[in-house]
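To the team - 2-(butylsulfanyl)adenosine complex, inputs and output below.
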Amino acid sequence: MSDRKIKNQKDYINLVNELIEHDKHYYKETKPVISDYEYDLLLKELQAYEKLNPTQVLPNSPSLRIGEALTKGFKHFEHIAPMLSLANTYSKDELKDFIKRIFKLLEKEDVKFCTELKMDGTAISIRYEKGKLTRALTRGNGKVGDDVTSNVKTIKTLPLKLHGKDIPDLLEVRGEVFIHKNIFKKLNEKREDEGLDVFANPRNAAAGSLKLLDPKEVAKRNLDIICYAASNGEDFVSSQFEMHSFLKKLGLPISHENHFDLCKNIDEILKFANKIESVREKLSFEIDGIVIKVDDISAHKKLGFTGKSPRYSVAYKFASEQAVTTIKDITIQVGRTGILTPVAELEPVFLAGSTISRATLHNIDEINRKDIRISDTVVIEKGGDVIPKVVSVNFNKRKKDAKKFQMPKKCPICSSAVIKVEGEVASRCSNPNCSAQKLRKFIYFASKDAMDIEHLGIKVMQALVEKNLVSSPSDIYTLSAEMLSDLEGFKEKSINNLLDSIEKSKKCPFSRFIMALGIKYVGKETADLLAIHAKDIQNLKKLSKDELLNIEGIGEKVAGSIIDYFQDENNLHEIDLLLSHISLIKPKQIRKTDHAFFNKIFVLTGSLENYTRTEATNFIKERGGKTSSSVSKNTDFVLVGSEPGSKYDKAKKNGIKILDENEFSSML
Ligand code: IVH
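Output:
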């Protein structure tokens, strides 16, 4: 919990930057490092300062914006009506103030409120045209969202066609996409087995799943949705309470009838809140509070907005479940790329359905920021069911001899030097042969996004390493039934299952093979880019730094890491061994010579609505075209977005073919 106070403008600027960083963790990486509660406290403090010092308010202040950014790899479209956020409070008094304010603004006290669950997922806007689902957008920056239509269409409870007769020609439905707790738990267990990062909570899992590039993968996540609003500029229902039955009639999934209500006053609202809080644990999905909305929709316009939230509604949030315990020790976990993660070993404590004995401390900056020491009494919180974290320290209970934690200078597993890379918060073990790193690397190698070897999770891999059966990824392909029978509990069935999956993995798409190599900074997206550009492993090995930097989306750091990787003789030897077992499937190439873009030179000007510059450039290059920064007599096409610059005028003057975005899309 925050006990800071902004004292001056410098503190204010620092807090703005800190919150922007948190927005990035939350929205872009879907990996928040502080709890919602802590975030809300920081934001409140920021807002209080801004209220007192309106002239200092920075234009990029998180109080003025919706944090979520747009995502690479998706088209972007504008929402018909902007997607706003809700003012929220954890305090009864503030809730009472909200009610009083509404009475005052509407100049009456017989106001009804519709109370609903505040689903803890990710906001979605779904467009139906003539009853057909045509587009689904994430909130994005509130005005423009990521087009996740194909992914949303995988949600089984969501109709692709609306039901009934009186279907409006156009309808923009709003709702929350989420993942059920049991599915989330299984998903994380699987990811842990595969050595992948686990999701911090179901909300991140839902948001992360919606942003996967392959709808088939999204379908496996079994997402669900609850809708709570729809509009098209017309008032087809007069109250929010009726909205639910309107949506239901159209076949849209809404909250269970016990989970929304009509309340006349604060007492009824609090009663509803208590009822929901008492069943919260039993719900199959996460909620983080209730939402209170003025029921009369015609009053919404009258009430207007403050900043980025409408005045007609407020979220009354439940504090997350917390427990108090002590830190017995802080240990270190070594990851695949050598990153050392400090972990708090806790006095076991029961919290939200299970006993907690460990909590991640993320990194040393986080430990220092919260001033966490060994033997401290701390508040821990279960961020939505898994990965508990330390929220705050009770300094009143600090022991005099409470030891400050320092990152070790030597790796606790292999004793090699620990290094801190400039510009990174993390410390890393410098020894690529560290046994902990190796184990994590092998698990990563076998994981779903890489070689996808089923039945080869953390436990089996650990056993294989301990028995000296696997000391490099290629050893996996030399395993025999006889060798596997050496493993505890391995009988005929499990042996056959594992050998079958190993066999299956021998045919592998090139991009997944690149992923499996575990090159630092090369994730799925970069592996895809490399596969498309290099086409085969021999070319990939030979790519120069300049050639790598020429690939849109690859920068200095990534290029440097790829070069380092292929300069290492051991890596090259291992690749040869792997390829003596594995045959790579080449990426599907568009037959460039057949394409209208082949050998054509493009110039881009103005801002495109549906593609980022990088995306458009990649599309052109994949089809054999080239891009140039200035218009000349060699230019074949000028792709023009909104507010184009002088390149557009020059192209027009010289009679060069001008493409607008639609023409470009259809040529693609
Ligand atoms: S109404 C002006 N109703 O909470 C925004 N939102 O913090 C109108 N949410 O973006 C939103 N359950 O993702 C509304 N019953 C509910 C909700 C709900 C969850 C989410 C939604 C929204 C966020 C705002």
